[in-house]
């Protein structure tokens, strides 16, 4: 009987210890499925913005922010969101392999945004483009050569032409046959520069999307594992 009473007293004493003396609880880890869905959502958002901006098209005041979101905000989110959510995770050594994987995902997301925009612009021209004989009004020989064009009825073509605008070959007063977008979402192309094939981008866009999802998911899962 005395032994039982002593055992009960010891158990009560342990239960009454302050909570701060108890071993710290490990925070729950974010599972690979959630990281897979997060990376997939980022890729889908980037592709959708860059594709529909010139194809729909989005209003001019939204196309710039759409590109910044796809080429800057979303790539940074792939790195910053895991860093913020997993800041409680401690490692004896920095997870260099995981950091490398996230760096690959970030870089590939930027490239994906640029290539998807090119594909969307070609699709936009394929869908809405019109041929016209344009007059070169001005040639801007800056960091990027730009030509200001006008149609035969005097309407200025927007935006300015960059592809095919070589100051050594083109000068004000020249007439060029160009394919332009009446809605102004895509820059005009000179006839010799036109080679529209948006379907040719499917392979590289799909490959980059898969690379981002795989490396991003693996990097996040690797960082979320506490090293003993």
Write the layout of secondary structure elements.
Blueprint lengths: L1 H14 L16 H24 L4 H26 L10 H33 L1 E12 L3 E6 L5 E6 L13 E6 L8 E2 L11 H23 L4
Antiparallel strand pairs: 1-2, 1-4, 2-3, 4-5
Helix pairs in contact: 2-3, 2-4, 2-5, 3-4, 4-5
Structural write-up:
This protein has 228 residues and is of the alpha+beta class. Helices cover 53% and strands 14% of the residues. The protein has 5 helices and 5 strands, in the order ααααβββββα. A 5-stranded antiparallel beta sheet has the order 3-2-1-4-5, with no helix packed on it. It is elongated. The relative contact order is 0.17. About 5% of the residues have low confidence.
**What is the element string, with H for helices and E for strands?**
HHHHEEEEEH
- The general outline is elongated
Largest sheet: 5 strands, antiparallel
Beta percentage is 5-15%
Q: Let me know the average pLDDT.
A: 84
Helix content: 40-55%
Total count of helical runs of at least 4 residues: 5
Low-confidence stretches: 18-28
Class computed from helices, strands and strand pairing: alpha+beta
List keywords for this structure.
228 residues, alpha+beta, five-stranded antiparallel beta sheet, 5 helices, 5 strands, 14% strand
């Amino acid at each position: 009987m005395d032994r039982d009473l002593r055992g009960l007293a010891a158990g009560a004493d342990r239960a009454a210890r302050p909570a701060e003396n108890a071993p710290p609880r490990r925070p729950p880890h974010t599972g690979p499925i959630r990281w897979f869905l997060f990376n997939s959502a980022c890729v889908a958002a980037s592709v959708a913005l860059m594709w529909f901006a010139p194809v729909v098209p989005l209003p001019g005041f939204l196309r710039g922010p759409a590109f910044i979101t796809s080429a800057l905000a979303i790539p940074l989110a792939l790195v910053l969101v895991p860093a913020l959510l997993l800041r409680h995770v401690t490692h004896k050594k920095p997870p260099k392999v995981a950091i490398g994987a996230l760096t690959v995902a970030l870089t590939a997301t930027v490239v994906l945004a640029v290539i998807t925009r090119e594909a969307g612009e070609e699709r936009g021209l394929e869908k809405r483009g019109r041929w016209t004989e344009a007059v070169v009004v001005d040639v801007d020989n800056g960091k990027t050569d730009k030509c200001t064009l006008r149609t035969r009825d005097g309407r200025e073509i927007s935006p300015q032409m960059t592809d095919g605008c070589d100051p050594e070959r083109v000068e004000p007063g020249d007439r060029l046959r160009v394919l332009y977008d009446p809605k102004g979402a895509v820059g005009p192309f000179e006839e010799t520069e036109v080679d529209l094939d948006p379907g040719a981008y499917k392979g590289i866009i799909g490959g980059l999307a898969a690379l981002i999802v795989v490396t991003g998911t693996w990097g996040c899962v690797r960082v979320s594992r506490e090293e003993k």
